[in-house]
Design goal:
71% of the residues lie in helices and 0% in strands. The protein is mostly helical and 189 residues long.
């Protein structure tokens, strides 16, 4: 009896995790398929945090360049991660880097010079994303609580993805999220 070999699946038939694994081997078709699937939502999520199209375009380019170069470092489901979460973690870090570069090279506004303190990149992203009473309450949170809420609520990351992004244990993320919700509820009451 002859064994029947299955033909390898085309990139369009694979999930994102398998596409990243193929990208790690230098497969351009897999990279193009991964880009085709993920770039639209990535751009939308970045635009929610940054209104500057030039920065969004730079972050997109840097993100996918990093994916091409570091796809072999993606551990995937073996550590409870997802390819989409991994991509967003890269993009979010690149966006923060872009804000820091912009803040470093920009001339501070006169009001910032008077206060002696320039707003953090995260504060700038937050100001663009959330306004009104909610934005004010969010900006008054302790930085570690605000980071957890931003990652989980604004960026839609899971507890595990947030823990990886912030470099803290999952239990710490859950505790901070609970404390942040309580503080927000009290500030908005």
């Amino acid at each position: 009896m002859r064994s029947v070999r299955k033909a390898p699946k085309a990139p369009g038939e694979l999930d994102e995790e398998h596409l990243v694994q193929l990208v790690a081997t230098g497969d351009r078709a897999a990279f193009e398929e991964l880009y085709r699937r993920t770039a639209p939502w990535m751009a939308v999520r970045l635009r929610r945090r940054c209104a500057d199209e030039q920065i969004v375009a730079e972050v997109m380019q840097e993100t996918y360049l990093a994916v091409w170069r570091a796809a072999g470092a993606f551990a995937g489901a073996a550590v409870g991660g997802t390819a989409v979460g991994w991509l967003w973690t890269i993009a979010a870090r690149r966006l923060v880097d872009a804000f820091r570069r912009r803040a470093h090279h920009a001339e501070p506004p006169p009001s910032a010079a008077l206060a002696g303190v320039a707003p953090a990149a995260e504060e700038e992203a937050l100001a663009v994303t959330v306004g009104g009473d909610v934005g004010d309450a969010l900006r008054r949170l302790a930085p570690e609580l605000r980071q957890v809420l931003q990652a989980m609520v604004l960026d839609g990351l899971s507890v595990r993805e947030t823990a990886v992004l912030l470099g803290v244990p999952e239990g710490t993320v859950k505790t901070r999220a609970r404390r942040a919700r309580i503080a927000m509820r009290e500030a908005l009451a």
